[in-house]
Amino acid sequence: ASDIHAGSITTTAITKHYPLCATHLQRNMSHNSHLKYTGRQQLGLFLKGIGLSVDEALKFWAYQFTKNGSGMTMEKFNKEYKYNIRHSYGLEGGRTNYKPWDCATILSKPKPGKGEYHGCPYRDLSADSLVSNLNEMGISDQSEINTVLEDVNRREYTVACTRVFELTHKEQMANQKNAEGLHISHPNLYFDRSRQLER
Ligand code: SF4
């Protein structure tokens, strides 16, 4: 059975493999018991890409949106959100099997406004906020942080993300030949690669 399900995707065993865009979305969704449209698309398709089934996705989103204090009932959830989740799995409407967004697609969408968390954090977060996220990912060395910030200043967001991947997987990569030179151009590539290195 898959280890990707509604209960597991909020545990560090799984989230430690998330790129920052997915961490940022899921963390804020969990905190607010809500997520606006573009963020739901971006995170929902990422989760589909890591192998979350439609039934587990419905369970996950329903729980998050109706949990303590959100004020949303299951009835309202089913009425307003269920269709869209099934739709993104190709089970409604035109039955398009939507693909998870790659970094280029994410960067081509309108930037997140207030209360929105989609997009690429390397582009969209303030330097301070990005640094505290890097710290949380275990990057605390100032010169390492500076190299990431330099990529960001050059607007090379996927280069920054690739660098973060390499900095946070140093040991695993040292144990594997051919581990270098992979450019992160897709959040699901980041996730899959990270899981692969753990095996
Ligand atoms: Fe996500 Fe791509 Fe940005 Fe990395 S570069 S945080 S994978 S959008």
What layout of secondary structure does this protein have?
Elements: H1 12-15, H2 20-32, H3 37-50, H4 54-66, H5 74-80, H6 82-88, H7 103-108, H8 121-124, H9 127-136, H10 142-153, H11 157-168, H12 170-174, H13 187-198
Helix pairs in contact: 10-11
Bound molecules: iron/sulfur cluster.
Iron/sulfur cluster binds next to helix 2, helix 7, helix 8, helix 11 and helix 13.
Structure description:
- The chain is an all-alpha fold.
- The protein has helices at residues 12-15, 20-32, 37-50, 54-66, 74-80, 82-88, 103-108, 121-124, 127-136, 142-153, 157-168, 170-174, 187-198.
- The two termini are 17 Å apart.
- Iron/sulfur cluster is lined by residues 19-21, 103, 106, 120-122, 157-158, 161, 184, 187, 190.
Briefly characterize the structure:
Helix content is 60%, strand content 0%. It is mainly α and 199 residues long.
Rounded mean pLDDT score: 95
What quaternary form is this?
single chain
Number of helices: 13
Beta-strand residue percentage: under 5%
Helix content: 55-70%
Q: Please report the total strand number as a whole number.
A: 0
Which structural category do the helix and sheet elements fall into? mainly alpha
CA-based gyration radius:
17 Å
